[in-house]
Amino acid sequence: MARKQAQRRKTRKVRKFSLPAMPFKRLFAMLIAIAVVAFSYQFSAEMLDQPISSISIEGPFQRVSALQIEEAISAELDSGFFSANLGLIQDRIKALQWIDSANVARRWPGMLEISVAEQIPAAIWGERGLLNTRGDLFVSVARHVPAELPRLSGPDGSSSIVAQRYLDMREKLIPFGLELRQVELDTRGAWAWKLSSGIDVRLGRRDVDTRTELFLAAAANIVSSREAEIDYVDMRYSNGFTIGWKDGSNEPARRVNSIEEGMVAGLNGE
């Protein structure tokens, strides 16, 4: 039995595969061609990668000068025209305090073209910080704080939340002829506003959105019609609000217990 198996093994055919032979001369010619192409590319790149001969900087230049931008990227200008890292140059420009965005492009034969946009201050944050139109804090301590800007404040890291609430409320108060000048979020999470007339609006910590809707539905009409007489509006009640009058000795407060009552009071000029 073992003998028959051995015979069968001898009769098995082994198939061999081989790659087509490539003539040595052809292979050598291909290697030479690749080397020539690589050398030509490297030589051409080195010939074309000349030093940067000039830069063009465009922007409003109200807070940042072209000289500041040039100084910020001076170390990168030693690179060649093609080897200069445009992304790194752009990042160095954007790191400047008043720069909002920057774009860097090559212009043949040796110029870098740079365009920048400066930050637009939209609100004061805290004592001397500045927020842009997106609610980003871009200056922590400004040398000059424009007095006409609204003032926003809140715990660290809350600037975007406070700014968004300010923007939302500013638009909603415009139809009533009311201007929002201050928005504050304290460390306990309580919200408060101040209107341009000096009237304080206290919203507290709970049901802030509901209380805001109640103010717009009921209190805003009263406030807009009697701004000179009102000291504050306290919205920190379950289903109403209190109006504090400047002449506190005669009528210290007016309590409105529902949206409907507030609307009627507003229509009657109460």
Describe, in plain words, how this protein is organized in 3D.
It contains seven helices and 13 strands. The chain is α/β, with parallel strands linked by helices. 35% of the residues lie in helices and 24% in strands. Strand 7 (151-153), helix 5 and strand 8 (180-185) form a beta-alpha-beta unit. It folds into two domains: 54-118, Roll (Ubiquitin-like (UB roll)); 123-268, Rossmann fold (3-Layer(aba) Sandwich), CATH 3.40.50. Helix 6 packs parallel to helix 7 (259-268). The longest helix is centred in the first third of the chain and has 25 residues, at 24-48. The protein is elongated. The strands form two sheets. The chain has a ten-stranded mixed β-sheet.
Strand order of the largest sheet: 6-5-4-7-8-9-10-11-12-13
CATH fold title of the largest domain: Rossmann fold
Low-confidence runs: 265-270
Number of domains: 2
Give the CATH class of the largest domain.
Alpha Beta
Total number of strands: 13
CATH homologous superfamily title of the largest domain:
Cell division protein FtsQ/DivIB
* Total of helices: 7
CATH architecture field of the largest domain:
3-Layer(aba) Sandwich
Class derived from helix and strand content? alpha/beta
Characterize the main sheet: 10 strands, mixed
> Roughly what percent helix?
25-40%
Strand content: 15-25%
